[in-house]
Amino acid sequence: MNKRLGIVCLFLFLGNIVFCQEDDKKGDEKVKDSLSAEFKKKGVVVEAASFERQAINPLAPSKAAFYSAVLPGLGQIYNKRYWKAPIVWGAIGTGIYVYSFNNGEYNRYRDAFKRRKAGFTDDEFFDLGAPDEGKTEPDVSDSALEDAQERFQRDRDLALLITIALYALNIIDANVDAHLKQYNVDENLSFDIRPYLDINPVSSNPNYGLTMTLKF
After folding, report:
1. Start and end of every DUF5683 domain (predicted)?
2. How do strand 206-215 and strand 190-199 relate by DSSP bridges?
3. Cα angle value 141/142/145 (rounded, 5°)
4. What does DSSP assign to residue 48?
5. CA 78, 81, 85, 91 torsion: positive or negative?
6. How far lies 85's CA from each of 62, 91, 128, 168, 210, in Å?
7. Which tens digit of pLDDT belongs to each residue from 13-47?
């Protein structure tokens, strides 16, 4: 009996809080109405603020991702994040430059190493100083050529992987940004919890609970 009495008191307390909140809202509305009437008496025109809900475009994220896939940075422009486009271009452009530089150096050392193995001594690394027709020992050894081409090949492959990752990140950023721009945070969203009391028609026992209302 005491347990049921305590539950009933709890629900009455929660209900009182809800009703007090509703009374506060009604009181605020009355204050707003009285202020509007007072302004009208003084000749001041008060216009009610109106809010226009932005329509959600479910294809916007896909379009942004597609544009960034075709041309990096174009999806960011589509999302009106213009300041991101130069960052995308600079990051991917740097990756392409590093890849191109290392690939060119790798080809230079590889060609010289292949000619050495073929028995030629006319590569660009054999005599780096003044021309010496009787020179028999190269300025850059065969092992140094091999180490150099392996180093530039490793750096070239790493630059390629980083550039691909930046390209994928550019697409992901455009897609996620388009999703976040349409995130619904308007005032029509609400969450309400109220006490619930019902009588069982068969046993006549009271059923206690809470009702949760979500409004979208």
Report:
1. 58-216
2. antiparallel
3. 90
4. P
5. negative
6. 18, 10, 44, 14, 51
7. 444 444 444 444 444 444 445 545 544 554 444 44
